């Protein structure tokens, strides 16, 4: 490209209008980008240089935006716990009980409980369940910064103040892309304010209402808000046999206690879930065992009473009755012995199905808030430069397409 052509291109770029009498225009440059195989790097740099004020403006705007995002980040304390669960494809540690059972004639299949474990992929679903979160929201925690014990429901509804950054972003979202929804909710709130009054009793945040023979959960707005805050502050990371539970709160003591409560509830839920079937089966076998024992005892008593009444006077009819009672006693004893064996098997089964789910590392009281990475600032700055360059090329591409359309129409 000659120097005269470069000067013509610069002048035409400033006007933004094609000029056939002054050599190549910015439209010609776009044609070169579309048709030529090799584009001079100098041309690209020169083309971007002409829009340097746009790049400077957009990049500085995003730089300031990144500084704002970093400076207004909420102050949160992070606490974590590690729970250790036995591998599901390994023995459960009751081989000794199985060997003792086999010595007594019990036929117990190996590894019955180890094959039915709760998948770690379901742990987040447990945390998000309504009943589980209700227990979390109603547990009192010590808030050292407030100097009192509060439940999370009380804290988020009556004491918690959202960070300025969160309120700022939500305001921009609600009055731009979600403006129709915001207006609709505001208008509806004017008419339904009385029916949406807050429930000051935290014990009533979750109620069971019977409708058409089905239980329906009714959640108050306060419960929904507190639940949304809790959801964003819990993170589960399954790592093989280790489950890492991480929590974040604005108070260090409350964050540690909240983490400990989640770990304990998770352990109880998983243990109860995995041996529930075995415990129900054990209760059923225990009931059969008691009934069989009672029948065997009655058969023994009937045989003893008959023997006492016919002592020394055993006729043929009495001998036949005695044989029948003995057979009945033997039958009830065999049934009682068989159910007794099943009872021992069921007890061992419950022990096998109870997983070893222990606290591998207890939560540590955090002394410093969560560290904020300053890398977000240059990331915002580079993103602004990228958007500015896309703006420049998009603008000139639009001019080129508009020029082509005008040429076709003429």
Total tally of structural domains: 3
What's the average pLDDT?
76
Q: Could you give the order of the helices and strands?
A: HHHHEHHHEEHHHEEHEEHHHEH
Globally, the shape reads elongated
What labels would you give this structure?
8 strands, elongated, 61% helix, 12% strand, 410 residues, alpha+beta
Description:
- 61% of the residues lie in helices and 12% in strands.
- The chain is α+β, with helices and mostly antiparallel strands.
- The strands form three sheets. Strands 6-7-1-8 form a four-stranded antiparallel sheet. A two-stranded antiparallel ribbon has the order 2-3.
Q: What is this structure, in a nutshell?
A:
The chain has 15 helices and eight strands. With 410 residues, it is of the alpha+beta class.
List strands and helices in order, with pairings.
Elements: H1 3-15, H2 26-35, H3 41-50, H4 52-71, E1 77-85, H5 95-103, H6 123-128, H7 130-137, E2 140-143, E3 148-151, H8 152-159, H9 164-174, H10 179-192, E4 206-211, E5 214-219, H11 221-231, E6 234-239, E7 242-249, H12 252-274, H13 276-309, H14 316-353, E8 357-361, H15 376-409
Antiparallel strand pairs: 1-7, 1-8, 2-3, 4-5, 6-7
Helix pairs in contact: 4-15, 8-11, 13-14
């Amino acid at each position: 490209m000659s120097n005269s052509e470069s000067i013509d291109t610069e002048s035409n770029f400033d006007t933004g209008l094609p000029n056939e009498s002054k050599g190549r225009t910015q439209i010609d440059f776009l044609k070169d980008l579309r048709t030529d195989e090799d584009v001079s790097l100098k041309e690209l740099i020169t083309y971007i240089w002409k829009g340097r004020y746009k790049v400077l403006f957009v990049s500085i705007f995003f730089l300031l935006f990144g500084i704002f995002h970093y400076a207004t980040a909420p102050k949160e304390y992070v606490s974590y716990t590690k729970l250790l669960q036995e591998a599901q494809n390994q023995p459960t540690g009751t081989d000794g009980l199985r060997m003792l059972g086999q010595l007594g004639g019990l036929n117990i299949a190996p590894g019955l409980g180890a094959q039915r474990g709760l998948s770690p992929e379901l742990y987040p679903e447990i945390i998000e369940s309504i009943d589980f979160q209700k227990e979390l929201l109603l547990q009192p925690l010590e808030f050292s910064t407030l100097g009192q014990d509060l439940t999370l429901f009380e804290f988020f509804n009556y004491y918690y103040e959202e960070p300025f950054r969160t309120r700022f972003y939500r305001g921009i979202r609600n009055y731009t892309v979600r403006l129709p929804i915001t207006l609709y909710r505001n208008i509806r709130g004017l008419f339904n304010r009385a029916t949406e009054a807050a429930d000051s009793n935290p014990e009533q945040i979750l109620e069971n209402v019977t409708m058409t023979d089905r239980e329906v959960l009714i959640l108050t707005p306060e419960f929904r808000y507190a639940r949304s805050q809790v959801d964003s502050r819990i993170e589960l990371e399954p790592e093989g046999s280790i489950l890492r539970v991480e929590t974040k709160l604005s108070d260090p003591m409350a964050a540690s206690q909240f983490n400990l409560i989640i770990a304990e509830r998770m352990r109880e839920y998983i243990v109860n879930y995995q041996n529930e079937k075995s415990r129900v089966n054990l209760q059923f076998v225990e009931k059969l065992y008691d009934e069989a024992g009672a029948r065997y005892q009655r058969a023994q008593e009937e045989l003893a009473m008959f023997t006492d009444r016919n002592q020394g006077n055993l006729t043929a009819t009495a001998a036949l009755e005695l044989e029948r009672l003995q057979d009945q006693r033997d039958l009830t004893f065999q049934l009682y012995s068989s159910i007794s064996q099943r009872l021992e098997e069921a007890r061992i089964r419950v022990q096998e199905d109870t997983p070893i789910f222990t606290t591998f590392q207890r939560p540590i009281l955090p002394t410093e808030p969560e560290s904020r990475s300053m890398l977000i600032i240059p990331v915002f700055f580079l993103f602004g430069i990228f958007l500015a360059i896309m703006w420049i090329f998009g603008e000139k591409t639009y001019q080129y397409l508009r020029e082509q359309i005008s040429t076709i129409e003429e």
